[in-house]
Amino acid sequence: MAPFTPSGDDSHQQLLDSLDLTLMPRPFRNPLWRPSQRRNKNIKQIVAEASRKEASVIATQNNSGTSTPQPQSSVGTGAATPLPGLAQAHSSINQAAQSLSTVVLERNLQASMSSGPMATYTNIESPPSLHPAHQKHYCDITGLPAPYTDPKTRLRYCNKEVFEVVRGLSQGVAEKYLEARGAHVVLK
Asked: How far from chain centre, in Å, is Cα 173?
């Protein structure tokens, strides 16, 4: 039985309308939300930035005074009396370490510049792997990934329905599929 409501009293309906959540405007996004000021970079931008920094370091080392040899102190200047051999040994070790790091950086730069793009873990432009373990096999009939190979016809198939189709093919048609894949054998 329905509850009794007086016909002249609309206060109950006004109360229901004021409490109804479906009539309230709800924006999709918080009005106080602002996008982050930090911009995300894709991998290609990160790699390009790293290679620019490396090239800059090499250029800076080649143009800085640290890669030029230190002048040998003359005996008669009267400045400071160095210990015989200690200062010379220390400066020669520093020069050797600096020249070694410069040689390594120069060889790495020459190798990367002369042969074009190198396939490294940082180079996203390297070609896909041709190693047999990384190649996916696809069904010769449907083109879907094929985990199975028919030993009789050597055609790849993806499920039992396609296997029935493969077994129903004549030898000439199966050879045409193998030829299209580049796996046919021609006996002379």
From this structure: 42
Query: Using one digit for the tens of pLDDT, what is the confidence trace for 126-152?
Result: 666 677 777 788 999 999 999 999 999
Buried-exposed string 163-172: b where 16+ CB fall within 10 A, e elsewhere: beebeebeee
In angstroms, rounded to a whole number, what is the distance separating the alpha carbons of residues 63 and 173?
Answer: 69
Structure tokens at 27: 């924006």
Query: Considering the entire predicted model, what is its pTM?
Result: 0.33
CA dist 8 and 27 (Å) reads 36
**What is the per-residue pLDDT across 10-25, written as a single tens digit (0 to 9) for each?**
888 888 888 887 777 7
Residues 6 or more apart whose CB falls under 8 angstroms from that of 82 comprise 73, 88
Q: In whole angstroms, give the CA distance from residue 166 to residue 146.
A: 13
**What does each C-alpha distance from 84 to 77, 88, 169 come to in angstroms?**
15, 8, 92
Task: Encode pLDDT of 103-129 as tens digits.
Answer: 777 777 766 666 555 555 555 566 666
b/e 21-56 (16+ beta carbons within 10 angstroms → b): eeeeeeeeeeeeeeeeeeeeeeeeeebeeeeeeeee
Tokens of 7: 């016909």
